[in-house]
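User: Sequence in, structure out. Go.
Assistant: Echoing your sequence, followed by the structure tokens.
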Amino acid sequence: MLVLTLKQPYAWMVIHGSKDIENRTWVNALLWDLIERQEPFAVHAGVSIRGDYYDKACAYARSQDPALRVPPKDDLVLGAILGTAIPAEIFHPDDWLLGRRWHMRDHYGWRLRDRTALPAPIPAKGKQGFWSIDDVLLGRAA
């Protein structure tokens, strides 16, 4: 299965919160293939939270969903696969003008559906872009 690393607290927001759009400056053939086949990818939480990134992310979250309560920084799982999501469609960077919640300016917005948490996180280091994990390992966790 393909895996995508997201920085915390965004990984938590996608799997456990209301964040149903992932923002990236890129799209690629792997993503289009997942959309066409309606297949999920795994969501991995990065291994660290640097500087004031957490505070800025929480402020952004409040602007998008005032009811969302992000866990404290020290309670977030790092360096692990948290769950899965199915990419359903892609919004163009200019579409952010339409006011879709969670869609950021100058980014492609990947609308995600069927965001599902694993029963327990799977420790993993992660990589940039899409990377792969053994389906057997992911299946055992699920």
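User: And one key feature?
Assistant: DSSP finds four helices and six strands in the chain.
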